[in-house]
Amino acid sequence: MASVGLLYVGAVLFVNAVMLLGRVEPRAAAIMNLFVGAMQVVFPTILLVQAGTDTAAISFAAGIYLFGFTYLYVGIGTLAGIDSTGVGWFSLFVSFSAIVFSAVNFFDVKDYPFGVIWLSWSFLWFLFFLLLGLKRAELNDYTGWVTLANALGTTTLPAFLLLTDNYSSAGKYAVIWAVCTVVIVVALWPLTRRTGAAAPAEPAGPA
């Protein structure tokens, strides 16, 4: 169930990335946010019902809700024409929460690659906070490209690895993931600064 949800998170991140980069109209992207947001609320609810007193399962479901609510917030807000400040500040809450879930994966679950992936999501949602909550429109292109990198590297790729039973939680893969993440995040900064593309005055929403 988790791998299926992760795959479609990759899809909505991809759509929102190309939206931020000006290739998809915001209201068109909002539909995908509603689809995936609904799924990311239904799936953890099922997990919670089945979890009983399983703390690990409850923690996992709680993490999924963070993103499900983000997508619903974006989808509904965009279609209703609501200012994006609220989802921006909610993204700050998600960013801090993701650091905690990263620590859980590193020190409790011992799933080291997902410890790195949670940190990647924390950084991405912090960018959403800056872009939408603080209206830092000059970060639009950078945020769009970082979103695209996350769509491919932190959701779609691990989803297919999980679906094909090729995923490993070993520490060496976490190191590879971490190095690739840092290189991409750092390299995208000067590249997006050089484009000089004008950012929209009112970004429509994040992942």
From TrEMBL:
Family recorded in the similarity comment: Belongs to the AmiS/UreI family.
Going by the UniProt record, its keywords in alphabetical order are: Cell membrane, Membrane, Transmembrane, Transmembrane helix, Transport
**Topology of this chain in the membrane:** Multi-pass membrane protein
Q: Its GO CC terms?
A: plasma membrane
Protein name per UniProt: Transporter
Where does the UniProt annotation locate this protein? Cell membrane
Domain of life according to the entry: Bacteria
Gene3D superfamilies, alphabetically? Answer: 1.25.40.600
Q: Which organism is it from?
A: Actinomadura soli
A Pfam family cross-referenced in the UniProt record is: AmiS_UreI
List the InterPro entries. Answer: AmiSUreI_transpt (IPR003211), AmiSUreI_transpt_sf (IPR038523)
Membrane-spanning ranges? 6-24, 31-49, 55-74, 86-106, 112-132, 144-164, 170-191
What stretch or stretches form a coiled coil here?
none
